[in-house]
Amino acid sequence: QSALTQPASVSASPGQSITISCTGGSSDVGYYNYVSWYQQHPGQVPKLMIYEVTNRPSGVSDRFSGSKSGNTASLTISGLQAEDEADYYCSSYTTSSTVVFGGGTKLTVL
Amino acid sequence: QVQLVESGGGVVQPGRSLRLSCAASGFIFSSYGMHWVRQAPGKGLEWVAVISNDGSRKYYADSVKGRFTISRDNSKNTLYLQVNSLRPEDTAVYYCAKDVSSGYYVVLWGQGTLVTVSS
Description:
The complex is a heterodimer of chains A (110) and B (119).
Chain A: E1 9-12, E2 18-23, E3 35-40, E4 47-50, E5 64-69, E6 72-77, E7 86-93, E8 99-101, E9 105-109
Parallel strand pairs in A: 1-9
Antiparallel strand pairs in A: 2-6, 3-4, 3-7, 5-6, 7-8, 7-9
Chain B: E1 3-7, E2 10-12, E3 18-25, E4 34-39, E5 45-51, E6 58-60, E7 68-73, E8 78-83, E9 92-99, E10 106-109, E11 113-117
Parallel strand pairs in B: 2-11
Antiparallel strand pairs in B: 1-3, 3-8, 4-5, 4-9, 5-6, 7-8, 9-10, 9-11
C-alpha cells in the first residue's frame, strides 16, 4: 500500500494554469477509473473536487479538470485564483479493495 | 443536511485503547460504505479503513491492520473505529467519511476528532 506520488509543491501566478500529477501503479491508478481529487484549505476539512478521473461534483468550478494516462492521473486548474491556494490530494481505489492517497501537493498562488 | 459528527478522541497513553464514533444524519446510512481517514499534525491524508454498507466487508491499511477495527450499527446510524495498542505515530485527526457507494472514494468528510498518543 504505497502512497501515490505527487509533487510536494507547485506555484503559479493568478490567471495561469497548473497541473498536478499523481502517479500510482497498475493495481490502483492504472487499473481503475476511481481516481479522485480533494482540496484542503488550512484548518479545514478536505473537499471533493474531482471524482472518477474527470467528473466534477455540483458546485465545483469548471476551472478544475481531471485526466488520466496509464498509471498517472492529473488535476489541472486553469485561470488560477487566490482562493485556489490550498493542499491537493489525489486518491485511488485499489485491486485490494482499499483506498490510497497521494502525499499531497501544496499549491501557492503567487 | 448530510452530516457526520465524530467523537471519542482525546489524549491516551501508548499501548492503550480508544473507541471513536461517528454519528451520521441526513442520508440513508445503511446504503453507503464508510471510511476512516486520518491526518497527522502537519502531514497528509492517510486512509485507514473502509466498511461496506451492511458491515460484511472490511478492509484496512497495512499500518493499522490487527490493531484497529472498523464497525457500524445501522440501527443507530453510527460508525465506529476501535483503536488498540496505540502508538505515538497514531497521533492524528481521525475523519469519518462517507463513500460514494461501495468503498471506492470519499464524497463527504466529518469535522474529525483528534487522537493524541503521549505518555
